[in-house]
Structures are given as structure tokens and as C-alpha cells.
Amino acid sequence: MVNPDEVIRAAEEVAEILESRGVGAVVIGAVALAAHGYVRFTEDLDLGVNTDLGTLSRIAEALRTAGFEVQVREPNGEDPLGGIVDVRGPFGLVQIVNYGGRFPAVIDGGLAAADTVIRPGSRLRIVPLPHLVALKLYAGGTKSRTDIVELLSRNPDADMAAIRDLCHGWRLRGLDPLIEEAAGGS
User: Fold this and answer.
1) CA distance 6 to 122
2) Which of 18, 30, 67, 94 minimizes the number of CB atoms within 10 Å of its CB?
């Protein structure tokens, strides 16, 4: 079983290495879902970034030098992501999920708007709810749609107009039926 404190400490170290290379990171994935009220099982912590593949490779090398086990998965034509770096150790897994070259605006916007940290004293910030919904809408698939419905149903006071505006501004489709379902309409 993974110790959450150890995973968070490792993610903080990974984020420091990212920042030292000029790359900001925001917490996404299941940990961000939980921070917004929807808890589901996870054994990793995902960090969303916006960078190029060359920088991602240099970051992977810096992580290896710091003692982490690292695997880089480069993007392919079918992948909506700009590469993933798996960072492993006794703590478990931290994934660096790169949206660079694919959907960088959501990470840049999330970094600019993020004001909630993962724990007091940490520099790891949680992606804001509207940006998390946009990330899930971009990812597509049944699991992501379910995540959106669960998130919205657990956040009935969220500014749905702001979420709609953000998603529509990025030309993401399919949000309105999910909002309706979350409100109990389906």
C-alpha cells in the first residue's frame, strides 16, 4: 500500500526539479478529483505540465540524477497528450503528464488560477475545478465523463457558467449533457 505522505513528498521534489527547469506543474488526476470532493481510488499522483519533448527528456535525465527510476513515454499520433514521464521509487508513482503541443492552454490557465495547495506549506497546487473539468472533457471516454458528472454533482455551488465559458472557449464539446446529468436531469 502506498503511503500518501511519501507520494506527496516525492511529487514536491519532482515539482522542484521541474521548476528548476522553468516548467510549472499543477496537480491533476485522481488527487485533484479528491480535492474537489470526488474521491476514487488511485495509487499515483499526476502533475500536469506544458513543455516541449526536448525539455521533458532533459527533466527525465535530471530526475534520474536525483535518484528516481524514470520512464519516458513519447506521444504518438493517437495520443491526446504530449508525452508522459513515469517517476518511480519506494514511494510509488508520480506521473508527469505533458499537454505541451496538444492542449497547453489548460495547464497554463490552471497554473495561473490555482490557489489551493495540496497541504499547508507545500508548493504543489491543485488545478481549479473549471480546468479539471476541461482536462477531463478533453481526455474523453466513459471514465472521464463519469468523473465530470461526479465532480459537478458534488460541487452544486460551482459557477457552471464559468465552467461552460472556459470549455466553450477552448472548443470542447459535450459539457451541457454532463451538467444536466449531474443536476439530476438524466
Assistant:
1) 13
2) 67
DSSP 68-134: -EEEEE---TT-SSS-EEEEEETTEEEEEEE-TTTSHHHHHHHHHH--EESSTT---EEPPHHHHHH
pLDDT tens, 93-141?
999 999 998 889 999 999 999 999 999 999 999 999 999 999 999 998 9
Count of domains for the chain: 2
Structural domain of 163:
128-186
The DSSP output letter for 1 is -
CB atoms within 10 A of CB 47: 26
CA 112 to chain centre: 14
Strand bridging mode 125-126 / 26-28: parallel
Three cell numbers written together for 108 = 497554463
Measured CA distances, 186 to 128, 130, 148, 177 (Å):
26, 22, 14, 8
Compute the distance between CA of residue 16 and CA of residue 96 in angstroms, rounded to an integer.
13
The secondary structure of residue 141, as a DSSP letter, is: S
Pick the last residue of a domain from 127, 152, 170. Answer: 127
